[in-house]
Amino acid sequence: MTGRAARRGGWREAAGVLSRLIAALLGGYALSAALAAVLALHLPLERSEAVLVGTMLSFLVYVLAVMWAFAARHALRAWSGLLAPLLILALVLAAPGGTEWP
User: Fold this and answer.
1) Residue 7, class by beta-carbon neighbours within 10 Å (0-12 exposed, 13-18 middle, 19+ buried)?
2) CB distance 61 to 38 below 8 Å
3) Which of 22, 28, 87, 101 is most buried per CB count within 10 Å?
4) What digits encode the pLDDT tens for the residues 10-46?
5) What's the rounded Cα separation, in Å, for the pair 61 and 59?
6) Angle at 39 between CA 38 and CA 41, to 5 degrees
7) What is the residue-averaged pLDDT of the chain?
8) In whole angstroms, what separates CA 14 from the centre of its chain?
9) Sign of CA dihedral 79, 85, 91, 93
């Protein structure tokens, strides 16, 4: 875009990219950390193995969350796509006995 068209919508595009970047970095980190915690606490493995599996899968989830944040059609969809599973994982952790080792 050049001229008036670039100046008119430029700040909205920049705000959308910034929102997606924050969603990818912070939302992706929160989602992957919550998943690692839930898997470490609820996988029926030895404690060290459950932590290792949860941590390794959290790296994959973080990459997928970053990809999702920039592949979503709108920034609001990117945020909702990250916050919805994060809310579910937070509810699992907040449930009675959700943070106790088996």
Assistant:
1) exposed
2) no
3) 28
4) 888 889 999 999 999 999 999 999 999 999 999 999 9
5) 5
6) 65
7) 90
8) 21
9) negative
| Nearest by Cα to 89 from 31, 23, 44 | 31
Kindly state the tokens that stand for 2: 């050049």
Distance CA 6, CA 2 (A): 5
Q: Please report where in the chains the tokens 């992706």 appear, as a residue.
A: 28
Given pLDDT bands bounded at 50, 70 and 90, which one contains residue 57? very high
Can you tell me the distance from the alpha carbon of 65 to that of 82, in angstroms, rounded to the nearest whole number? 7
* Listed residue (32, 30, 29, 35) closest to 93, CA to CA: 35
Residue in the block written with tokens 């670039």: 6
Mean pLDDT of 86-92: 95
